[in-house]
Amino acid sequence: MRSAQSEHPGRFVLVESDDALTQDQLAAAVGLDEPRLRVSDGRYEVPRLTRTHAEEPEPERTWDPDGTVLITGGSGVLAGIAARHLVTERGVRHLLLLSRSAPDEALIGELGELGARVETAACDVSDPAALTQVLAGVSPEHPLTAVIHTAGVVDDGVVESLTVQRLETVLRPKADGAGILHELTRNTDLAAFVMYSSAAGRHGRWGAR
């Protein structure tokens, strides 16, 4: 919806409500000239930024240097950034990079020089059987302690060009993969389960660039 609004200013309005709205209520909502609003008990509410007091963050769990951190989309730019951060800032020493494409040998070499032991596996995270097999191969000496899900496929286009097939292509590794990762690791004591997602959901496709 954000992308549709950015491509067609003034044409789309997102209205949220717990109850069915009358035509008059919808017309009134559209007439407010707001891109998004909520109707609650007859009131029209719009999102606004406000200043607030930050709460004390919960203490973060310590990352076990002997544990294995799994990173999906392992040959991508985001995976590389995450891996470097984990090794240099979190003390991670065992990485498992998953990717459907060939591993990034330069990244593996760089991480090795930083003191990390890197393993790679060819795996489609939207394939439960393949992912189960990869997880079963994690060494008990270095059990899985965190998951970083950066995998994704880009199939960009304006709203009018979208098809069911294009949506499936994008959602399969990102959304389906996240669900499968969750199911297969839900009983594992993880220090973190981190999912990367596009900012377009908040800002629209153009605002996210």
UniProtKB/TrEMBL annotation:
SUPFAM superfamilies: NAD(P)-binding Rossmann-fold domains. Residues 67-209 form the Ketoreductase domain. It comes from the Bacteria. The keyword Transferase applies. It holds the Pfam family KR. Keywords: Multifunctional enzyme, Transferase. The keyword ATP-binding does not apply. This is Ketoreductase domain-containing protein. The lineage of its organism: Bacteria, Bacillati, Actinomycetota, Actinomycetes, Kitasatosporales.
